[in-house]
């Protein structure tokens, strides 16, 4: 991710975290549409929460740089790391409950 100086404009959806968040939320929505979430409701809840964290991590630097007067302080990285951990836990829940539960 390229850091911009304060005052420089960035595209709102310029980071990959937003794309990852949208992909996770879209995957959960398609699983719900296909009635696949009944097998692992807890795992898909973790994945949806990870998607929200990735969305926030992707939008946070742009909001701070464009609308507030101070630079980023690394919170986007923290939110991305939390999102990754939540996605890992959700994936493990889904895999376990789909493969080993009846």
Large-scale geometry: elongated
The domain tally reads 1
Number of helices: 3
% residues in beta strands: under 5%
What is the gyration radius calculated from CA atoms? 16 Å
Structural class: mainly alpha
Q: For the terminal residues, how far apart are their CA atoms? A: 43 Å
The total beta strand count reads 0
- The stretches of 5 or more residues where confidence is low (pLDDT under 50) are 6-13
Largest sheet entry: none
| Order of SSEs | HHH
- Work out the helicity level: 55-70%
User: Could you report the average pLDDT, rounded to the nearest whole number?
Assistant: 80
Structural notes for this entry:
The chain is mostly helical. The protein is built from three helices and no strands. It has one domain (16-100). It has helices at 16-33, 41-67, 75-100. Helix 2 runs antiparallel to helix 3.
């Amino acid at each position: 991710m390229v850091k911009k100086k304060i005052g420089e404009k960035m595209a709102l959806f310029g980071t990959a975290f937003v794309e990852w968040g949208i992909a996770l939320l879209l995957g959960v929505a398609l699983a719900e549409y296909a009635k696949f979430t009944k097998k692992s409701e807890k795992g898909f809840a973790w994945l949806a929460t990870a998607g929200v964290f990735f969305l926030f991590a992707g939008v946070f630097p742009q909001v701070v740089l464009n609308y507030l007067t101070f630079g980023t302080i690394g919170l986007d990285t923290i939110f991305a790391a939390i999102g990754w951990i939540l996605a890992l836990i959700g994936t493990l829940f889904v895999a376990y409950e789909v493969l080993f539960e009846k």
